[in-house]
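Dock NAP; give full complex structure.
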Amino acid sequence: MADSWTFAVARDDLARTTLVDGAVPGLADGEALLRVDRVGLTANNVTYAVLGEAMRYWEFFPPQPRGLDGGWGLPPLWGFADVMASTVAGVEPGSRVYGYLPSAGHLVVRPDRVDASGFRDASAHRAGLPSPYNAYRSTDGDPAYRADQEDLLILFRPLFFTSFMLADQVVDEDGYGARALVLSSASSKTAYAAAFELHGRGPRLIGLTSPGNLAFTQSLGCYDEVLSYDDIGALDAVPTVYLDLSGSPATRTALRAHLGDLLVRDIAVGLTQQTPNAAAAGEVFFAPVRIRKRSQDWGRAGLDERFADAWQRFSQVVSGWLDVRAGAGPEALRDAWLEVLAGRTPPRVGHVVQL
Ligand SMILES: NC(=O)c1ccc[n+]([C@@H]2O[C@H](COP(=O)([O-])OP(=O)(O)OC[C@H]3O[C@@H](n4cnc5c(N)ncnc54)[C@H](OP(=O)(O)O)[C@@H]3O)[C@@H](O)[C@H]2O)c1
């Protein structure tokens, strides 16, 4: 069979990378072979690596079967894969799925709960990991799928799902009684999608961003106000909720110093600056927890329908906020990794790689 490849990063130094060749894995009974076809790279993928041990993200795609030792990790990616071979009824060669994929040419999955919407990977090593990451959505049975929007889905699906669920929680909690919601790394896709969802539905929305990303973030029009990290002193002294996507200790310190008891909630959502922030925040927002709750409240189909509606509204707007930068091949994946890791990607750019 044709060759495959694996891209891995050193777990203790995410800028040290390796690209190795290998054989396409064979299949046992109950398994299917996916060929990783087209994936995206944003700060979110770097966060998976930063939290690789703490949140067990390295365990989804173990390096050892690919001939690499445990000092290496495969950064999880989101994107589309094609079913190449299958021993499982209902998972047909030639079909295309969206899901959580390794930085490698191929992935062997053990499909379970197969239906028209897709399947779950029931591989033993994934059993104890958060369940939304184990779902593979068939393009045929997905109300949010449109062939001409694949790149938008690649880049935004998990991020917008987070933003949608975060906004749902904030609205459900009546904005925690606050008059202002402050989001850091306001230029990030997850932050501005949350602002898009929250705009006009409660507290005033204020984005905090780097000076160089101020103009872009203001141009989106989904925040009521955008300030640079240096201007925290200009925030109104009103009851405020902080949704932290940067993880920056300095920004948290400045907000606490300026707002004191008026900072009514401090919620860790992300860590674009690559410093784990959960312990310093008051609480953590983890999308899979909210997804589980809403799956129970609304049923899986009810959640899918609401998501598809919100996605259609957002996707019409966001294509004007995004320049897709498409690369080809594993080397382009490595280049995109190093660029995103170094924080050199402008917020308007979304990296997509055809493999
Ligand atoms: N809790 C959850 O369940 C959940 C789910 C999805 C995503 N998230 C998190 O949300 C965060 C945003 O992810 P994303 O994919 O939406 O990001 P993105 O669009 O790639 O964000 C890029 C922005 O992040 C900041 N940034 C990027 N690299 C940086 C670096 N090296 N140093 C400092 N700042 C940097 C900059 O924003 P500024 O200049 O505006 O700071 C930059 O414009 C990630 O940490 C991600 O893991 C959390």
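Observed: The domain at 4-142+322-354 is CATH 3.90.180.10 (Quinone Oxidoreductase; Chain A, domain 1).
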